[in-house]
């Protein structure tokens, strides 16, 4: 949901259909509602309703079709355009959406993405802008407690926001996270990250060292995904990467049928072959877990 | 795009008339000590005196010379170089092997500008190469007129100077149109040189644009013949290829992604484009590894990357030192024998480090 031209379809194409940021310039306006179903983590089917943002559609959603649109919603992602001329009118629309949501699906989770953050150059101002949105939105949406993220299709912030969104969606995340922690301990790895296979979103990550910044995995999501496109253009689909430095080894390997795993070890005593064997051995366990 | 290693015509089909043979008088004939000395000198050369091994970039104003060099040497994005100030002074960009690339101010009018002041000696020397950039989307005739003036004064000093005509800004043109433009320019240049009795044996034509890797490929071809002892390098890479049954090896300069040498099997441009893109992606991924503490020149300290692909070939990247990497393409059975590759790689790396001291 969001106003016309906010970038809803752009972000959907980027995450779920392998578009590059440049490609999205070609996209036209979305007519009515585009339904798409995405298989995520194998068995989780995400039904994504990309709602056209033009006035006539929006009015339609809020009046005639409200039951249809707002019924059975698990997650509402509302996209704010940073460049909007009239912030107040955006909020009015947002209020209407939430009011409907409250009637038809009370338990839905609301995410607000303040989009096109790349238009602001200064990092301090970026934070301030997101903060101002956050305060304004918190006042307006008392029962939903929305999460607010600043995003842009030109850097990894979009991946970051979406990773958080899917993290809440995957049902048995707690179990997966616990087993991943265990795996990390058993292999003596310094970092283990689980990526979803199709979108390369970060599903789950763990590290004995708590201070690891999450940002770098998001950057990796983006670059691996881009590289995978390049590989398939060269007719040799991407499978795995093994990178060895003086004191660290990095693996990116296909894991279960819906995930990729990234393992970084920093102990020079650990032979890469051992880590690789460990990944192989853990595979079957995680496949069982997914079932 | 054809799959690399697969079909495709022999040679990189559209790259001008000649295959790139070593230019006259340039083999590995010179004694090694001599070459080592030359490399020493170039480092200390100031603006006044040009480096021994040099590439001269010339062309009309706004033909894209500075853009090209910014994209390659300063890693700027192509989109950011669209509005650059005209170059007023000769600027120098250095490649690691003692090769310098000089960016000259655009030639407006050959007779009156600073060009008349240019000492023709800059064209002299065995290791000088001229790049003339022609803007394919503007008046080609005036470009060619100044090209002939440059060639005349260059050949009066150095009859064997390689002349590379970069037909620039071909992005957005269809393949057919590109071929037409190249053919047209080629005809006009060669005919005119024939009339004027100029030596056209060392003229090469390359289609380039800063929006893809074609510009790197073109400049690689120019630079390769200036690399010290290039034929020994090729021999080394050939033996690496045959001993380890690899399909293709590039010796790549990390900063600019130009290839300084490759084995003698035909080079398909998709292969090189893929190499560039792979190196870009791997740089980003490598950013995730913890920062390396000490930059020792110990062999085992350098980076090794194996990339598994489900296609015809896989990739192995062997870092020789901070500046150079070997980019190897081979079938998966070969790439999976990492220990063999690393052993061979370490021998090759040792040899290359001797030829190209950092």
TrEMBL record, chain A:
Keywords: GTP-binding, Nucleotide-binding. GO terms for molecular function: GTP binding; GTPase activity. Pfam families: Gtr1_RagA. Gene3D superfamilies: 3.30.450.190, P-loop containing nucleotide triphosphate hydrolases. It comes from the Eukaryota. Coiled coil: none annotated. One of its GO terms (biological process) is positive regulation of TORC1 signaling. The keyword Transit peptide does not apply. InterPro entries: Gtr1_RagA, P-loop_NTPase. GO terms for cellular component: fungal-type vacuole membrane; Gtr1-Gtr2 GTPase complex; nucleus. SUPFAM superfamilies: P-loop containing nucleoside triphosphate hydrolases. Belongs to the GTR/RAG GTP-binding protein family. GTPase involved in activation of the TORC1 signaling pathway, which promotes growth and represses autophagy in nutrient-rich conditions. Component of the GSE complex. This is GTP-binding protein. The lineage of its organism: Eukaryota, Fungi, Fungi incertae sedis, Zoopagomycota, Kickxellomycotina.
Automatic annotation (TrEMBL), chain B:
It comes from the Eukaryota. Keywords: GTP-binding, Nucleotide-binding. Signal peptide: none annotated. Coiled coil: none annotated. GO terms for cellular component: Gtr1-Gtr2 GTPase complex; nucleus. GO terms for molecular function: GTP binding; GTPase activity. GO terms for biological process: cellular response to starvation; negative regulation of autophagy; positive regulation of TORC1 signaling. InterPro entries: Gtr1_RagA, P-loop_NTPase. GTPase involved in activation of the TORC1 signaling pathway, which promotes growth and represses autophagy in nutrient-rich conditions. Belongs to the GTR/RAG GTP-binding protein family. Component of the GSE complex. This is GTP-binding protein. It comes from Coemansia guatemalensis.
């Amino acid at each position: 949901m969001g106003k016309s031209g906010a970038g809803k379809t752009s972000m959907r194409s980027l995450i779920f259909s392998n578009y590059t940021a440049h490609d999205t310039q070609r996209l036209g306006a979305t007519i009515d509602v585009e339904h798409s179903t995405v298989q995520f983590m194998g068995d989780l089917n995400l039904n994504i309703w990309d709602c056209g943002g033009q006035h006539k559609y929006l009015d339609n959603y809020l009046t005639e079709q409200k039951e249809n649109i707002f019924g059975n919603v698990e997650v509402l992602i509302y996209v704010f355009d940073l460049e909007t001329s009239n912030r107040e009118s955006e909020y009015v629309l947002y209020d209407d959406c939430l009011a409907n949501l409250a009637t038809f699906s009370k338990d839905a989770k609301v995410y607000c993405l303040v989009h096109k953050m790349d238009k602001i150059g200064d990092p301090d101002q970026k934070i301030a802008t997101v903060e101002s949105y956050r305060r304004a939105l918190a006042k307006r949406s008392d029962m939903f407690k929305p999460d607010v993220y600043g995003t842009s299709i030109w850097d990894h912030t979009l991946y970051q926001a979406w990773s958080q969104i899917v993290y809440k969606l995957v049902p048995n995340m707690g179990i997966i996270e616990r087993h991943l922690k265990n795996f990390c301990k058993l292999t003596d790895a310094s970092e283990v990250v689980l990526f979803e296979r199709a979108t390369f979103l970060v599903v789950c990550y763990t590290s004995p060292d708590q201070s690891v910044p999450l940002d770098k995995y998001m950057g990796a999501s983006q670059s691996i995904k881009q590289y995978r496109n390049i590989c398939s253009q060269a007719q040799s689909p991407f499978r795995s990467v093994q990178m060895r430095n003086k004191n660290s080894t990095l693996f990116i390997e296909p894991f279960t049928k819906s995930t990729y795993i990234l393992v970084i070890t920093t102990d020079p005593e650990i032979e890469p072959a051992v880590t690789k064997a460990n990944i192989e051995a853990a595979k079957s366990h995680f496949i069982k877990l997914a079932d | 795009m054809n799959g690399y290693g697969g079909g495709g015509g022999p040679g990189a089909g559209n790259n001008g008339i000649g295959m790139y043979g070593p230019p006259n008088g340039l083999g590995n004939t010179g004694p090694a000590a001599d070459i080592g000395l030359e490399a020493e000198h170039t480092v200390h050369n100031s603006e006044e005196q040009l480096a021994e091994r040099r590439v001269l970039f010339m062309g009309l104003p706004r033909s894209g010379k500075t853009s090209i060099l910014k994209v390659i040497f300063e890693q700027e994005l192509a989109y950011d170089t669209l509005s650059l100030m005209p170059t007023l002074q000769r600027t120098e960009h250095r490649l690691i092997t003692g090769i310098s690339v000089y960016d000259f101010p655009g030639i407006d009018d050959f007779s009156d500008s600073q060009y008349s002041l240019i000492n023709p000696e800059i064209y002299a020397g065995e290791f000088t190469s001229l790049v003339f950039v022609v803007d394919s989307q503007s008046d080609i005739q005036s470009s060619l007129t100044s090209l002939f003036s440059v060639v005349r004064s260059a050949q009066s000093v150095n009859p064997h100077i390689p002349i590379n005509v970069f037909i620039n800004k071909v992005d957005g043109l269809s393949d057919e149109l590109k071929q037409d433009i190249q053919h047209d320019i080629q005809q006009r240049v060669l005919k005119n040189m024939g009339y004027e009795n100029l030596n056209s044996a060392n003229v090469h034509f390359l289609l380039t644009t800063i929006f893809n890797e074609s510009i790197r490929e073109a400049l690689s071809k120019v630079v390769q013949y200036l690399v010290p002892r290039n034929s020994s390098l090729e021999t080394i890479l050939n033996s690496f290829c045959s001993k380890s049954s690899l399909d293709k090896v590039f010796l790549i300069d990390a900063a600019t992604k130009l290839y300084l040498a490759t084995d003698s099997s035909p080079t398909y441009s998709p292969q090189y484009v893929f190499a560039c893109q792979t190196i870009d992606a791997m740089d980003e991924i490598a950013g995730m590894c913890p920062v390396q503490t000490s930059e020792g020149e110990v062999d085992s300290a350098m980076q090794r990357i194996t990339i598994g692909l489900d296609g015809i070939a896989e990739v192995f990247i062997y870092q020789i030192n901070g500046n150079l990497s070997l980019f190897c393409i081979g079938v998966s059975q070969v790439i999976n024998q990492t220990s063999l590759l690393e052993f061979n790689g370490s021998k090759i790396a040792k040899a290359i480090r001797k030829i190209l001291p950092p």
